[in-house]
Amino acid sequence: MKMQCKKARKNISLALDSRLQSAGFEELQAHLHGCPACQDWQKEQQGLLELMKTAPALPQLSAGFYAVLREKINEPLRAVDYTAFLSSPLRPVLLRAAMFLLLIFSVLAGFFLSGRLDAPSVQSVAADFNQAMNLDAFADLPAGSFGAVYERLLQGGLQ
Amino acid sequence: MATETSDLELLAQIGDGDQNAFASLVRRHQGRVFHLAYRFSRDSQDAEELSQEIFFKVWKYARNFQGRAAFSTWLYRLAVNTCLNHRQKKKSAPVPLSLSGDLAAAAETAGAELIAREREKLLEQAMDALPVRQKMALVLANFEGKSYEEIAAIMEVSVSAVETLLFRARKNLGKILRPLKNKSAC
Lengths: 159, 186
Known about the structure:
- The complex is a heterodimer.
- Chain A is mainly alpha-helical.
- Chain A folds into three domains: about 1-50, no CATH class; about 90-120; about 120-150, no CATH class.
- Chain A has helices at about 1-15, 20-35, 35-55, 65-75, 90-115, 120-135, 145-155.
- In chain A, helix 1 (about 1-15) crosses helix 2 and helix 1 runs parallel beside helix 3.
- Chain A is elongated.
- Chain B is an all-alpha fold.
- In chain B, helix 1 crosses helix 2 and helix 7 (about 130-145) packs across helix 9.
- The radius of gyration of chain B is 19 Å and the shape is globular.
- The chains are: A mainly alpha, B mainly alpha.
- The interface between A and B is large, with 34 and 41 residues.
C-alpha cells in the first residue's frame, strides 16, 4: 500500500505539470478513489502550486547595473584563469597529448631505473634471510627445550 | 527563431570583443537572468551580484560557445551553475521556519491580503530550506515555466532525474509547510 502511495504521489507530481500519460492517469484516479491520504496530498500540492502562481511582483535591476558590468569586463585580468581550459574546444586534444607524454615518460623512467638497479648476490640474500629468520635465537637454550628442538629441526638434525 | 539567431550573432561578436554587442545581449536578457537569480537567492542585492557574475561569464566564455545547445539553454546553464556555486560558497544555514505569531495574528486581525502575504513569505522560507538542486528544479519548472526537457538540459541531468527532483521538492515543501498550516488553523 505504501509503495502504491509513493508511486501515486509521483504521478500526482507529474499530473500537476501535465506530464502524466493517460494510462497512468487512470491508474492514479483509481488509487485516489480509495486513498484519502493521497487525496489530501493532491489537494495540498494543488494549493502549493496556486500559491506559487500568485507570487509577489519581482524587484527590478538597479539603474547602474550595466555600468558596473562594463567596468568589470574592462578590468585587466589579474590572474590566469586555469579553469578556462576545461571549457576549451582543444581540451580533448590536450588531454590526449598529456596522456601520451605521461606514457612516454613512464616507459623512459622504467628503462632508466632498470639499468640502475643491480641484482643482489645470492650470499647477501641468504645473509638477509638468516638475519630475518634469526636462526640462532634458540642456540643457548637447554637441549630438551622446545626452542632447541626447533633449531635442530631447522638445521636438519632431526629426521 | 529570429531572436535566437540574433543572440548567436551577438555572441559571435562578443567573442571578438565587441562591447556594443555585449550591451545589447545584456539588455535583452538581464531581466530574465536577474529574476532567476532573485527567485533563487531571495535577496535583490545578491541577485544583482549574481547577475553581474553570470554576464561576466558570458563575456568571458562567449568564444567557447559551440552551439551544441540553444543559446538560452547555455545562458540558463551558466546562471544555474553560478547560483548553485554561490549557494555552496555561502553555505547559509536554512532559516528555521516559525510562525512567530505572524500568520496566526494576521488571521485574527487582518484581511485576506495580509494572510496571503504571510503565506508567500512562508513559501519562500520553505523553498529556502529545500536542497539547492530541488529548489532550482522547482524554480525552473514553476516560476520560469521550463519544460522537463529544458530543465534536464539546463541542469545537465536526465528527464527522469528532473521528475524525481520535482517530486522530492514538492514532497519536502509539503512536509515543511504542513505543521505551520496546521498550527495556523488552530
